[in-house]
Specification:
With about 220 residues, chain A is of the alpha/beta class. Helices cover about 40% and strands about 15% of the residues of chain A. Chain A has an eight-stranded parallel β-sheet with strand order 2-1-8-7-6-5-4-3. In chain A, α1 packs parallel to α10. Chain A starts with a strand and ends with a helix. The interface between A and B is large, with 45 and 45 residues.
Chain lengths: ~220, ~220, ~220, ~220
């Protein structure tokens, strides 16, 4: 995937559920292709299949469990989201934290299935811990800034710089994303300046009056 | 839905993932239509859409969370599984227990979306508790018999009778299913004799050498 | 225990930790004995023993797990809090929700040990569900009012009346407490008027400038 | 604390609850003082106070939550176990796994309170992750060997060696313990040979017919 990476989390917003998830993913695809920027659509798990069938940009899951095939009910496995058309997954999102041992199992299962992994974290120490598990990306999101409208890249550049430095020390192959409060092209530019490979955002696009315009603004300064 | 109800949980078995979930659901459909018995397919959450697009029998989710539209990541909402084509859901399966307050929210959210609800329980007391929340069904499954091959209807008929009696006392409109160890037509017949409206099973069909033959056996004594 | 019951949850407040838990329990004891009102002290779990050794009022645990003796680490068992001097326990507090099946196990384990049980709930439906498990008390606390300073008995008398009516229908031997926003004697009086057997409160006493005065005010209108 | 460290987890065993926790801790104390070996007693949380008042060896908690003073009910805080007499704590035991972000908070809270921290882990990758959080110790316990009677130091020496090497790379100040199946002095000797600073065990002592004899055997080859 070409850098920088813009990862759009659809959450469970009504504006990005079911048929609207497909429309939202199409906006992402349109802007991605028009501007040559990698945009990843992260719909709800039941929407992965229909979204993946409809667009030619990467589709990721919002979560997988650290279990495989077997006697598990209601769990989301790497193999099943792969079969549904996903090519990556968020793991340990701040709204869906999992046990450390399950982050490890989930990263392993995803890698085995050939899925790209983004482990979400809340501070520099936890980012270092996540980096030891060698996911493709860690995404640092200070919880107090999530949904705040105040971009982490402005509010707390040191935490982003610190995360980048800490990860390089643990495993230079792991790339860093940042999230929380991102909604403008200047936030993305600032995030890249700080050494990240891109951003993770949700409401800045999904809850925007005009999501396509929001996406265009986001990629405008790259 | 016509009674009795045969609910087939696909779990995360490899034999019922992705394209194989569609094949498995087609066996269920074929036997359901040929024998006039209600069979419900319960695929993994990422498989709901493709299964629901492929068969004309009810498709249920294995789990929903007790949250609605909003800032939730990795959660499975009633609205999203409805949009994906499900018409019902398991709640609180023994492999996916949730908080009492979340069972309540999940049942409410499912009802509001027009979904049929099956709340799974482990003993008579918990079955009574679940019945107060007025789901369409409660499904009692003694944990020690799950996957045992020993049918609850034979091993512990008193727990099934007790659950039926307890539920009638709390809310006679709630119907009772039973599960754990069910694999034969005689198990289904015994479950109905004990006052249930049907059964919940998984490995008895999915892990059978010939799932279609297993389904045929299941409905053979009704 | 003589009604009404005033249950004082010490939470993890600094004002009621360690030696201060003992002092706080002594205030409860003093007011209880002086006014003939039942006041229960609910210190943190590590403080149960020293508090129970120091006062002659009932001491309850804030939480127990639904497990017994065995290979469990970090779990709080009924037998262990009994041995430490507790004579009752909260179960499923809004800040420590547990699975429905664990509420059931915890109530059973507590009863077997001879402990008084208070199952906390968030609405009328969940209160009914809890009542089927036959704890000694259910304590309804609308989450939106917890810590609000607005007493449930004033803000939402219907939820309290509804809970009392629902519980009587399920099991008339289960008594109802209410909580959330309680801090004054008039709140207690209102709660009793609504048919409850008492109240559950925390910050109204523990965070008061003068906890003894707060307790005196609480029992003043009974 | 003088190495090697023998950490005895009392779990919720009946043999080490309440007054029996005190007796068990006295055996630990007696053998520790007689042989100059550091033995740590890890009683259930409600037993910490009475055990800590009765013996002059270190007493640790089995678990703390990653929260501090405040509106938390049923949570175990670093400050409260310190006030109860503990001087350290297990974190993330295999029977009490917690979220990665909570391991981080728990380690921070414990350090701030001056408590020694042992973070439990299940494999080498998770051990590396835990080491980045700079606890005093990590304790690797392969889940499949816990309670098996087959000592990890014999059954899987490579996992122990690998954990020691991985931790040294991340943070050489973090020491490594190992656990699972340990019951003999030779198991302890083997663990030390492999580069650990000691062992974590439970049933090998607590469920022994003669716990004092078991302890004597444990320290016999050091």
């Amino acid at each position: 995937m070409k850098k920088p990476l813009i990862v759009v989390n659809f959450k469970t917003y009504a504006e990005s559920t079911g048929e609207k998830a497909v429309s939202m993913a199409r906006y992402c695809e349109e802007v991605s292709h028009a501007h040559g920027v990698s945009i990843v659509a992260v719909p709800q798990i039941p929407d992965i299949y229909r979204v993946a069938c409809s667009v030619k940009i990467p589709v990721y899951a919002q979560h997988i469990d650290g279990v495989g095939a077997g006697s598990f009910t209601g769990h989301v496995t790497a193999d099943c989201i792969l079969a549904a058309g996903a090519c990556g997954t968020l793991i340990n999102h701040s709204e869906r934290r999992i046990l450390l041992s399950d982050i490890d199992s989930a990263v392993r299962a995803a890698k085995k299935a050939g899925l790209t992994t983004i482990v979400c974290t809340n501070n520099i120490a936890v980012t270092s811990a996540a980096a030891t598990l060698s996911p493709d990306f860690v995404a640092i999101e200070p919880p107090e800034l999530i949904g705040s409208g105040i971009p982490v890249s402005k509010a707390d550049p040191d935490i982003v710089r610190g995360a980048v430095a800490a990860v390089k020390k643990i495993n230079p192959e792991v790339e860093v994303l940042c999230g929380a409060g991102i909604s403008k092209g200047e936030d993305v530019a600032a995030a890249l300046e700080l050494g990240t490979s891109g951003v993770l955002l949700a409401s800045g696009v999904i809850k925007a009056k005009d999501p396509r315009a929001a996406l265009l603004d986001l990629v405008g300064k790259i």
